[in-house]
Write a sequence for this structure.
């Protein structure tokens, strides 16, 4: 069936992004907004707005019952969950199914398999993907045995975690008991699941992920993205293609992602994340994100695809419209996440009202943002203000375009991390390409010490 | 109607070869200003028209009642706007209770802003005399969270 009305259960730039594709496809949009977002730009742009609850996410964007009820009440054919919030929540997927509404995302079984990080590891191993040596542990005795086997440093990860949340490091074997006990307690409190597993800590790695699109029967990849510029596991800059990667390794990553998605008969947009050691040409499966990613626009820039449109099409039950040979990435694209946080004050969040706002425009420049003069940046949600995406025939051209474009971003009323992006662009290591996930912390320490 | 990014790109291509430095476009839902940048390229500023709703929300709901600070007391105030938490995580013991003795660096609460947890330090030495906000309550910057009685006062 073709969707005529879609409820968008999200906010900010991704809500606006989904609205834009729906407008192009002639689909009516209903925005599910919290009390704090009733006058946001996405709320002004959507065809209709329904209030789903109070400002704090737990009482609105994380309330799957309120979302499913709103979708039913407004007569929506489908719910688009965006990213974050309930985008990988099997309860919302089930709630939609029971209400006879399509969920624009992975199936309930796939969400269960990818949401349980240990189960996802098992799927990866069965599909022949390399995983970091590790094991699930149920007692401190087992934990000590694992540490004896794999050595230190090691990471304790929550089975219900993911995306860098719920990770703890064991630097010396004698710390094992204490760190595991703490990790179990925190995992139970944060995710309602006390299970943890231990993995060897790979000290120098890059974060490279592969975009998949599937219809449940057939699957294609849309290239990789390097997301190694991170601060505290939060991505700052992403680019495609991944720089300084051998063609052979790139192809092995694409094949591994397809093997993983194939093992799940994956439907929808999904991203398989890998830890890559470019020096030894080795890589390991990390996890799968069963949703659209923040950084999807760089893939769209080089492929010319509208990933949200493809996502909607397979959710409607259409067969995948793409063949692998149709996806021919062209040029180089980089995304810079502009956040309301102050790098001069240790990245302190800076909510408030935007007083003035101008963005660069022109060939090779794309801005995904829900910010304009007069817009409120509420303190309840994440700090993303805008994504600046540049696209040029090669990496040097893209970085040069980014320098000019960043100078033409003007956001007043809240602090932003634009100066941080400019400092990264001026650094030799980022200019050369291929930095690891540990690079930014040291770079920023040296930069601010000067 | 709304303008797509493709529309904006096409407008800029036309403007590039024109003598004009500025263009204003206005539809029923959107105002768009394109300006030639001093640097190079163009900038865009957009303003979406508000919905004709009466539901325009206040900034943060009703203001909390003001807390009065008695003589001999020091206030611990919220360093930034956000949700006030008395314990490091749900179910854990609160950082401090009435009667707890604190030093300047003692962490007395957490303020969650934009999904980040910010530790609040007492900022002064003393004994906690009153707790002036509810756990998980949303507080404005500068709101009094605790009253401290200076030691010996």
């Amino acid at each position: 069936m073709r969707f005529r009305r879609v409820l968008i259960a999200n906010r900010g730039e991704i809500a606006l992004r989904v609205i834009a594709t729906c407008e192009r496809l002639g689909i009516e949009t209903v925005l599910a907004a919290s009390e704090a977002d009733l006058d946001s730009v996405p709320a002004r742009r959507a065809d209709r707005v329904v209030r789903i609850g109070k400002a704090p996410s737990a009482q609105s964007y994380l309330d799957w019952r309120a979302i499913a009820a709103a979708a039913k009440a407004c007569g929506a054919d489908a719910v688009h969950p965006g990213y974050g919030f309930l985008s990988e929540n099997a309860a919302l997927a089930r709630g939609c199914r029971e209400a006879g509404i399509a969920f624009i995302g992975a199936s309930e079984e796939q969400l269960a398999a990818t949401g349980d990080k240990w189960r996802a590891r098992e799927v990866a191993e069965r599909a022949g993907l390399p995983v970091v040596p590790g094991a699930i542990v149920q007692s401190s005795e087992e934990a000590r045995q694992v540490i004896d086997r794999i050595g230190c440093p090691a990471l304790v990860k929550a089975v219900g975690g993911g995306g860098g949340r719920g990770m703890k490091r064991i630097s010396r074997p004698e710390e094992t008991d204490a760190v595991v006990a703490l990790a179990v307690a925190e995992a139970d409190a944060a995710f309602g699941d006390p299970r943890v597993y231990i993995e060897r800590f790979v000290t120098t790695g890059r974060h490279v992920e592969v975009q998949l699109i599937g219809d449940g029967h057939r699957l294609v990849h849309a290239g990789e993205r390097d997301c190694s510029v991170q601060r505290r596991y939060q991505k700052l800059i992403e680019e495609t293609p991944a720089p300084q990667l051998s063609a052979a390794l790139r192809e092995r990553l694409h094949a591994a992602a397809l093997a993983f998605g194939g093992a799940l008969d994956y439907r929808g947009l999904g991203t398989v994340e890998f830890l890559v050691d470019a020096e030894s040409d080795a890589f390991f499966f990390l996890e799968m994100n069963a949703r659209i990613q923040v950084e999807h626009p760089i893939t769209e820039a080089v492929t010319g695809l509208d990933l949200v449109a493809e996502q909607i099409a397979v959710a409607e039950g259409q067969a995948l419209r793409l063949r692998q040979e149709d996806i021919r990435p062209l040029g180089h694209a980089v995304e810079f996440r502009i956040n309301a946080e102050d790098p001069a004050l240790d990245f302190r969040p800076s909510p408030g009202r935007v007083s003035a706002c101008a963005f660069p425009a022109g060939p090779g420049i794309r801005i995904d943002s829900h910010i304009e003069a007069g817009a409120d940046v509420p303190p309840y949600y994440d700090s993303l203000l805008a994504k600046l995406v540049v696209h040029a025939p090669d990496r040097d051209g893209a970085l040069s375009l980014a320098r000019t474009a960043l100078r033409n971003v003007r956001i007043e009323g809240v602090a932003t991390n634009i100066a941080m992006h400019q400092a990264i662009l001026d650094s030799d290591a980022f200019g050369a390409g291929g930095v690891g996930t540990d690079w930014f912390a040291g770079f920023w320490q040296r930069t601010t010490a000067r | 109607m709304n303008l797509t990014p493709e529309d904006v790109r096409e407008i800029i291509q036309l403007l590039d070869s024109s003598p004009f430095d500025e263009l204003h476009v206005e539809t029923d839902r959107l105002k768009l200003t394109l300006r030639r940048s001093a640097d190079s390229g163009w900038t865009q500023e957009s303003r979406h028209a508000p919905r004709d709703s009466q539901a325009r929300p206040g900034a943060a709901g009703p203001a909390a009642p003001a807390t009065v600070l008695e003589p001999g007391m020091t206030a611990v105030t919220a360093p930034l706007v956000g949700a006030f938490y008395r314990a490091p995580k749900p179910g854990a013991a609160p950082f401090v209770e009435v009667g707890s003795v604190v030093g300047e660096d003692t962490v007395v609460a957490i303020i969650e802003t934009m999904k980040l947890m910010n530790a609040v330090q007492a900022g002064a030495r003393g004994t906690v005399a009153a707790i002036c906000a509810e756990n998980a309550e949303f507080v404005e910057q500068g709101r009094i969270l605790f009253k401290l009685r200076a030691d010996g006062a």
The CA atoms of residues 21 and 39 of chain B lie 13 Å apart. Chain B has a mean pLDDT of 85.
